[in-house]
Amino acid sequence: MPAIDTVVIGAGHAGLAVSRLLTLEGRDHVVLDRGRVAESWRTARWDSLHLLTPNWMARLPGWAHAGPDADGFMSASQFVRYLERYAASFSAPVLAAVRVEEVSAVGDRYRVVTDCATWLTRHVVVATGPGGQPRVPAAVQGLDPDVHLTTSADYRNPRQLAEGGVLVVGASASGVQIADELAAAGREAVVAVGRHNRMPREYRGMDIYWWLERTGRTARTIDEVRDPAAARREPSLQLVGRRRHQSQSGQLDLGTLQARGVRLAGHLVGAEGHEVRFADDLVDSLGSADNRMHRFLDAVDRHIDQSGLTREVWAPERPRAVAAHGAPASLDLASAGITTVLLATGYRPSHPWLTLPITAADGSIRQHRGRTEAPGVYVVGQRFQHRRDSGMVDGARHDAAMVVSDLVGAARAAEARERREAVDELADELVDERLDDRLEGRAS
Known about the structure:
Elements: E1 3-9, H1 13-24, E2 29-32, H2 39-43, H3 76-89, E3 94-95, E4 100-106, E5 109-114, E6 118-126, E7 133-134, E8 148-151, E9 165-169, H4 173-184, E10 189-192, E11 197-198, E12 202-203, E13 206-207, H5 208-214, H6 228-232, E14 237-238, H7 254-259, E15 263-265, E16 268-272, E17 275-278, H8 282-307, E18 330-332, H9 333-336, E19 338-343, E20 347-348, E21 377-379, H10 396-443
Parallel strand pairs: 1-2, 1-6, 2-3, 6-21, 8-19, 9-10, 9-19, 10-15, 11-14
Antiparallel strand pairs: 4-5, 5-6, 7-20, 12-13, 16-17, 17-18
Helix pairs in contact: 1-10
């Protein structure tokens, strides 16, 4: 069983960020992935997907976007190449096509069992990302088997789906982007709208993420929020990765979907055969999302006034309210010509190979600033792990730095302790030898 200082599980942006910092510290480590570098961006994303964050936010330890379009948005395939170049820049020790089967404790070390080898290690860093398994709500349990049920993780493009209309469940970034693509392809679409976060792509001439960073929102820590559990369940922003010149204000929200002919309903509450039922909450969901959006934009306006930026930015122009007329209480899918229900309801944590007692009831890993209750086991890249941007490409670098700093400090302390123990053991052996010599001398 080969011994190694650290095993990093996951070769996405978070795992590579950790690997880069471990390399700088000279720590012996390996990065394991079930596929290749950025595997989920290769195999669990739809064809037209672009990052929600602009290119200038693709910052990683010792790495940043160097192309001409800093305000653009990388496609999934471009981002894969971006991470491949990053890994190559420091010869990241990635082992591809290695499936982790078990992580367990062995004394003060950990055994990482895979389908090709087993490692004995001091440290394990779980960097598999905030997702796991697509979340399938109980509301779809009663659907007729004739209705094609799929998830955003399996969706690639409209041609892949069965002929007919589509009910999209979920109105965060994935749901609105897929519904927009379906409508553009001439497909009938209905969106079941739950809790969502509406934001304009740009405000007063700057990308919304520029304002989120400028006002300190991305750096807000989990210790500063009233309900950490709710903060970690917060839906993604209702955005699409495209700029103003590519569409009207680069905007994509439920209002633009309505203009394309997409119908809106309340959140899905049940299904029986071909009939689905919706809650009477569309007005409330839209109103709550608008209230949260306007509170943030009010904060941006105050920041502009206080910082003397009024002449540097555009005049304020806010998205209009979305009309909530004609929302159905139920829908007969067969009569409506809907053959597919597509779930854009997010992911639930899943670590079936993790046998350590560090997971919560919902499957998430219990941690604080990346450190778990198991000494030497860390996590990076979770939603709101410590900062609001922890689950984003840009934010993982902060958590990676905290984790590696703690890991290296603990490792140095352990190494010093082992040296002291070795010295003490040698001293004991010398004492024993001298005592034996004295006893032999007396006997003679």
